[in-house]
Amino acid sequence: MALFLWLGSQLSSCWSSFSILGVFLTVFTLLFDFMKRRRKWSRYPPGPVSLPFIGTMLCIDFHNPHHSFKQLRKTFGNIFSLQNCWTNVVVLNGYKTVKEALVHRSEDFADRPYLPMYEHVGYGDKSEGIIAAKYGHVWKELRRFALSTLRNFGMGKRSLEERVTEEARFLCAAVNAEEGHPFDLRFLVNNAVCNVIYTTIYGERFDYGDETFKKLLHLFENSLREETGFLPQLLNVVPILLRIPGVPQNVFRKQKAFMDFIDVLIDKHMKTWNPDDIRDFTDAFLKEMEKGEEAEKSGFNYNNLRLVTADLFSAGSDTTAITLRWALLYMILHPEIQSKVQAEIDKVIGKEQSPTMKDQVNMHYTNAVIHETQRMGDIAPVGLPHMTYRDTELQGFFIPKVTVWVTPHNSAAVHLQTQVESLVSTEVGHFEMLNPGRRACLGEQLARMELFIFFTTLLQKFTFVLPKDQPRPREDGRFALTSSPHPFLVQAIPR
């Protein structure tokens, strides 16, 4: 009996100790959380109530963040704040707000937050690529090199336009091979657009049935999907979780596989590299790496070669291919608009001559359709995250240094026909820059060229219709960093 009493007293004592320890740890963690949180700056943008540890993350659907931002905008206005765990986030809405930040205060908003989830593929202090790189000397040098090298390989020149025109002919031949049967044009369009930038970066193009290229595109699409959702965001703001063995390898498996594929391409280049015969962007980067310590200080190292070429490949292929798929989707849903585009093509270009960029200035209706496709498709509903380079102000709000901010591109639901006619009346002949300022897209000129030439060439040769036994395709997007159409089938009828 005495033994039981003794055990009881010991358990009671232990329980009391555990209780005290539990209270202490709770108080300590709450104090730690409080100290990690932002100060209450005066004139800081308003936002929803922030909970301990997780901040406002429960307010956001990370699979469709733009929908969440749209709802929060109704409550808090064009500029509001969030908190991802202990990371301060400001969301900017509206054309005037974003233009003021990106153009009028471009350097203040030019930085990028560090993204730990990319560390397992070589991202780090000395290798950040271009898209996700912090604002500074290395980013400026790599961007300068990329722009000049892309120009050397045809960017903005007639030679690149001829390459796009040739690829458009290959695309039409592949569409024609479907012989009027229903097919999913996703892969053909992706293949065509990717071939243009792929040739510039890696010096090759792939046939439309090439299994290696199909694997590359599949890996790339899946790697983008891995970056959406709650978990990747949590890993970025609480990077210690990435130190748990197996976490990055399992969460970002496809991303790693995509970069492994890039390694194979670069390894192939290194085995055949000749400094006297620079075949493509990769060769030019390898030559820059040979310049020694100064080149190393400017970011010319192997890991950056991998990341920069992957950046150029993704930026030069994904958004343009998705925009073309949206354009063709809208054409089958609005055959009356497709007919007007074809009538303008027949009048300005004819049915046999290949479209060129010189034709664009005389094709106001076609330009308006492409412009409206970009707006309605809204392919980048949430811009890449920026970070303030220094303390700044925006529309009366104070935004401190190293605050992360994003820009959802909210599109109003306006009927395509009405909006196109409105644009034609103002003779819209070019596109708004999607990301002006210091972080302007390197491949914007190429994207404009590809959209116009691929779109007009396809509608010159084919009329696209919805197969009779198919349901009406969905018009909402599928979000995975970019917003793409849900799969749909078309029939291409030769004209």
Account of the protein in words:
- It holds the Pfam family p450.
- Belongs to the cytochrome P450 family.
- The chain has 495 residues and is α+β, with helices and mostly antiparallel strands.
- The protein has one domain: Cytochrome P450 (Cytochrome p450, Orthogonal Bundle), CATH 1.10.630.
- 52% of the residues lie in helices and 8% in strands.
- The protein contains 18 helices and ten strands.
- The strands form four sheets. It has a four-stranded mixed β-sheet.
- The longest helix is centred in the first third of the chain and has 35 residues.
- It starts with a helix and ends with a strand.
CATH architecture: Orthogonal Bundle
- Give me the side-by-side strand order of the main sheet: 1-2-6-3
Instruction: Give the CATH class.
Output: Mainly Alpha
Number of E-state strands: 10
CATH overall fold name? Cytochrome p450
Could you list the spans in which at least 5 consecutive residues all have pLDDT below 50? 410-414, 426-433
Q: How many helix segments?
A: 18
Largest sheet: 4 strands, mixed
Structural class: alpha+beta
| Percentage of residues assigned to helices | 40-55%
Strand content: 5-15%
**What's the helix-strand series?**
HHEEHHHHHHHHHHHHHHEEEEHHEEEE
Mean residue pLDDT = 85
Kindly provide the radius of gyration, computed on alpha-carbon positions and rounded to a whole number of angstroms: 26 Å
InterPro entries: Cyt_P450, Cyt_P450_E_grp-I, Cyt_P450_E_grp-I_CYP2D-like, Cyt_P450_sf, Cytochrome_P450_fam2
Keywords: Heme, Iron, Membrane, Metal-binding, Monooxygenase, Oxidoreductase
GO molecular function: heme binding; iron ion binding; oxidoreductase activity, acting on paired donors, with incorporation or reduction of molecular oxygen, reduced flavin or flavoprotein as one donor, and incorporation of one atom of oxygen
Subcellular location: Membrane
